[in-house]
Amino acid sequence: MRRKVLFLILILMSSFVGSKVGSEENCERSQVQYCIPKRGVQDFSDGEIVMVERPVEVSLDDEYCSVLGMSYNCLIKKELSEGFLTFQKGDALIVYDIPGEQPFGKLNVVEGFCKERGDDQYQGMKSFVYEEIFEGMDLRYTFLHHKVLEEVVIEKFRGIQIVQQFSIENVWLSEKEGSIYFYHEKTGRLTFFIPPPVMYEEGNPGVRCHDIHYEVKPAGDKYIIRKVIDKEGLNWLKDPERVYPVVIDSTTEGGISDPWEESGLLPYGQYFKNVNEYVSPTCGSLTVKQTDLYLPGRGMDLVISRVYTTPQLFTIDDGFQPVEEDPPWEIANGWRFDFP
């Protein structure tokens, strides 16, 4: 029996031309290549894996600010007017408006400008800012590699209910647990995602309040979306110890697809929630496992699988700024034999 199993293993191994026999721990390069989309930088400091956003391409002309992220395009009008922001991924679109009449006053038609963030959380990231859209209120958009962060910055307490409207193209929406999901009409795949809103102190983002929610209603060929602050949220804003300015955070994400999920393979390794990826515990790379053969037996199962790994390592220059290597990267290819 042992000879037959060994003979079968040798035949299977010889059938995979270009594969490297070894172990996942080696993380050596092989002849298998995949084009992995550029992502952020993984920082392994303090024993925790975190994702550091990389800058996106931002360009300005007389009328628009154009943004090219990792998986989206964004177009913002310099003047705060109808259809001032377009968020696009492929042929799918979300176009945002702010009605001129709001529950607490009339919108100031202002001209925005581009600036670089200087705070610790988004150091070096580009933002587009409309100042004083209402008295004591700014509207700021920060461009991250897979999402656009919308921040309404208020300088003092006011009982506000922010009303916006948007139109969509080639997607349909669904609300669930405070979030808004946009699915492509043809493929049915999740294309855009708006997580629940949150409020926090601009100078101390760790001090935050989640007592705010969306209300979305259809209005002809558009949708009206309200950011409604709950009673507990109003009390949080009125707290005499609250340090203003306060930010009302609303994000539109377009980086939904995952390169590993697109491959159709199963993720492998240890799951890190803050990275939302499976990472090899031995070499710190994103990994997936493909099972080529499974033979159940009495007291012994034979499993032959291959593990593919993509390095997420980046060089660091003297200024401690991450420098990204250009894809595609070669993927390690290994074998695992499991005899339970």
Features:
mainly beta, about 350 residues
Describe, in plain words, how this protein is organized in 3D.
The protein is built from 3 helices and 31 strands. The chain has 340 residues and is mostly beta strands. The chain has 2 domains: 2-50 and 258-338, no CATH class; 72-253, no CATH class. Mean pLDDT is 70; it is low at 2-53, 255-268, 271-277 and 312-340.
Topology of this protein?
Elements: H1 2-15, E1 29-34, E2 41-43, E3 50-52, E4 57-60, E5 64-68, E6 73-77, E7 85-89, E8 92-97, E9 101-102, E10 105-106, E11 113-116, E12 126-134, E13 137-143, E14 147-154, E15 161-169, E16 171-176, E17 179-184, E18 190-194, E19 198-201, E20 204-209, E21 212-219, E22 222-229, H2 231-238, E23 246-253, H3 259-263, E24 266-267, E25 270-272, E26 277-279, E27 286-295, E28 302-310, E29 315-316, E30 322-323, E31 329-338
Antiparallel strand pairs: 1-31, 2-3, 4-5, 5-6, 6-7, 7-8, 8-15, 9-10, 11-12, 12-13, 13-14, 14-23, 15-22, 16-17, 17-18, 19-20, 19-23, 21-22, 24-27, 25-26, 27-28, 28-31, 29-30
